[in-house]
Amino acid sequence: QSSLKNVRIVGFSTDGDPKYMRTMRLVTGFFATLPNIKLNSYTNTFYVKIPKEWNWYFLGDSHLFLCFQDAIHLCAKLRNRLLSRTANMLIGNHCISIDYLSTLIRNIPKLRHGLVKSDIFPQDRQNFSSCVKIRSDDVTKCLAEIHESDGIIMYIRLLRSIMIACIEKLITSINRLYYALFSVFVSRLWYIWIDYMPKVDLEKSLYELSGITTNNKKRNNFSLPITLT
Question: TM segments (predicted)?
Fold first, then answer.
């Protein structure tokens, strides 16, 4: 139907579920091929001129369509990880926890940040409108008034950058690229730091910063950040 209206769809987005990942690898030829179907031989295949010096680029130069990350689903995952009561995150010397948002709602008037309790204790894990409210500039400004909230402010800025880069419509290409690169840089740097630090030191810092008491029988889970590729 889109072709009849002279509209060409060159990309599809979906969740990163393993069954979808395999399908995406097959249709894009990313270290996988379909034995009896050559998708890049169709008449409506488009071509991408790839510079020879791009030795890091592993996709081919002809495609029927491309695959993208579902940005709304990704942002919802980041939000749900932030609001989790069973997982804790650590960035540098700062703990990332839902408790900071709870303190914000209790102590700062709603007119300043716009959050309510249902935004941070959600029943619907795909509530994207809550994600939009949490990443607002008003929330980060109010969080700056709370002691030791640098970690969650950085996390919310990361969430905001992803939303601007992947979802925002009224934005220039150069700004979209800036926020996309910022998101990738922060995520990878965070992941490298966690991978470099000994697990014992990470757990010790997490327990000290979050007030969790060490208990060999029952411990809160330590959470790694969601990495972006």
Answer: 177-194
